[in-house]
User: Fold these one by one.
Assistant:
Number 1:
Amino acid sequence: MAIMSVYAPDGRPRRHAWDPTIAKERSQVLKMVATVTALATIVIFTLQALYFGAYFRQEENAYRLTVRIIDMDSQYASTVAGAPTAILGPAVVQAAQQDAAASPGYHLGWQYASADELQMFRVTQDGQGQNASEYARQIVLNQDVFGVILISSNATALATEAALTGNTAYDPRGAIALYYEEARNFYAANQYVTFHSTRIIEAAIAQASEQLASILLGSGGGTAALTTAANGNALSYPFYFSQFNLVPFDQLGAEPALTAGQIYLIIFTFFSSPIWKKAFEPLRRKLTMSSMLFLNWIVPVILYFWVSLMYSFVTLAFRVDMTRMYGRGGFPLYWALNWLSMTALGLIMETMLRIAGPLFFPFFLIFWVIWNVSVAFLDLSAQDPFYMYGFTTPVWNAIDAGKSILLGTKNHLTQDFLVNLSWVVVGSVLLITTCWYQRRQEDKRELQEKKQEHKGEKAQQ
């Protein structure tokens, strides 16, 4: 039986893995494997914990999702002569107060309109005050609060009148209006703001309806109230509410671009870096310092320009309307946002690829992705204060600006673009400085090698 050769084609011997003659090389390999394993362990228990922590205390932080309760019902009852005592307004306020007291840390941030705020809506000698519905819409769209519960100024009076007179035109849904903005953050809006708001509204309606029925049936006209209520159903169904989603998250094609698509944006940004760096290497040493630095900077920026256009076209191809907020300028603006965001992310990665090298760069890439993504999808108000750093990250600002362009939320474009432009400046400085320093070090090593060769030649002579 033939024995397999243990020699390489060039005649050099090949060893078994545990051959004592390669103990040094084997030790180096095992040390490198141990180092990488240790780093992976550290990454799992730090960076993965960073991402998990972003979701960990959402319920406890729900109090930071503020909802303003504007009780116009009580104000009407206290200022209009002959108006019945307010029932619905106080019931909503009481339900919110009981909710906060019964579940500390697990409730929304209930706010109550102040006397000065309520005064703005009063009818005075100068005419009608500010429209309460428009005011509620304004503070939600301006993102001063996450929602508004507006109790109509004559909610109790209208329900009482309908029950006593049999007003069949009475619509109980006009008693309370809930305003919110889903597109601001659909996780926060759907899981917390609307869920908890409707919960206390329904509790208040049940209490107020029972109280109104008790008052009417206990009065001298109880039998008449039952008779007329049968026509309008106003006694058994005196109060209800309407919901107004001022900016819905209604473009499902935009969801990838505003959520997981940002992870792909980082991947696409990095995709060309190793290829470009390897392709540029033979030319790099032959260029002047200024040419080398300029190409190291401009080529990635140009690549991001093209890749961001392709990324933006994919979003457009799935019929995402980009004209809602900024008209025909929506698509160029969206493209500019993606280009700026890719440049902000990419120049930092280009720098770290040169500093960490191909072996350790993946650890930085994991950090860069998790650090950005941990704060990108949830509303920062629902996260621990530590995660407020999200306001400074490229991805958070890209998503915030993207919501304005694609869905029509509040315009923070100046802030979003300036933050990412700052990252571009920082990344540019770091990349150019790193390339300059490494080139200088290479020149010094070459000079030293030439000196050593010159000394060797002299010694031989």
Number 2:
Amino acid sequence: MNPPLSQWSSKMEVGIPRIDAQHKQLFDLAATFGDKGDEIRVMKTILQLCDYVKVHLREEEVMMERWGFPGIEAHRQEHKKFKGMLVELLGNAKAMTLDQIADEVHRLINGWFYNHILTVDFEYKPYVKTGGP
């Protein structure tokens, strides 16, 4: 059984309205798995998650580059890890039940992404206001 779904809150804001809105969107997406679901809803949500990852991670990396954020390479590696976990999920999905897929998406968002925002993303937070060192 999964722990309760992490809820979006202002404590997760990094100070960039567009990025904060994207992060919130991710938790809204995770909430669609609250009652498990039918195949169409699960697959639609996975496709939305894939689209989200492509857009959000790229935008975040472009901004970090623009600010001259010194931790950008380590941050890119964290993003690469998440993409790998998502690719693995997609590869395994055919052999999984809908509930197992929903549980795995929940774990990725509620666990990995939640912690990523509050730790790794917060490393660039000081650069948001200054635009660099």
Number 3:
Amino acid sequence: MASHPKTQFTPEEYLAFERSCETKHEYFNGEIFAMGGASPQHVLIVTNLVIELGSQLKQSSCRVFSTDLRVKVAPTGLYTYPDVIVLCDEPQFSDEQKDTLLNPALLIEVLSESTKDYDRGGKFEQYRTINSFVEYLLIAQDRPHVEHHLRQGDGSWLLHETNSLNDTIQLKSVPCSLPLYEIYNKIDFSSDPIN
């Protein structure tokens, strides 16, 4: 990620800049970071997830959001754009603009070569400080592979992984199950993904 030329910004300056900008940026610790584009496989996986989750949650109070809704990790000050967000409670926003969510339950990131370490490490560490956040999926785009993290009653996190298109991820934070063959619908693993 490339940093914006000014060295330090307040959260208010970041939000004013971001709301006037056509591209997306993350913000942390006074710095603004440009977000790169996504590969066709990345976009298709996100689309598959939104379709599958939206279909299963259609008759529930849960809401599914993708890529363009900003999340503020209030305890750490990170502003970011998860690939998919699901929540079943009433959404809480950081201000009257209602474009920065505070209370996600389920977050999903589709991994790319340039972001996978951050999504598994520093970003996940920050996400874990959100009280409402209880479930995290990390989805590979270059092969069938899903990492399913679930917060336990004692605050620890349990990891389940699968590599089989025949497996199904049973979500706990929302009444859904995600078959891997639906997550990866129309994905061609024989081609090289663009990261």
Number 4:
Amino acid sequence: MSSAPLYAAAGVALFLIGLHALVWQRHLVRKIIAVNVMGSGASLLLVALGHAGPGATDPVPQAMVITGIVVAVSATGLALSLTLRLARASGQVELPRPRDDDR
């Protein structure tokens, strides 16, 4: 039996957990972590879908995942530096709560 369906299910679960945290968390650092969790889930799903059979894997999804890891590290560094600038400028790192007038 192949372990690809297990990896695919774990990738979907990680993506959904990250999506839930991205929607419901107000703290910006937690949102950045949620985006990273979502990216990890997408990478795991892509590797699972690249499994071609017993003993055979497609190298293209693996190369895409490696490229995605490099992009994710760069985007995380940029997001954290912007969050740090926002914290220095405004003194807070959370998004404001929506008012009743905005709904």
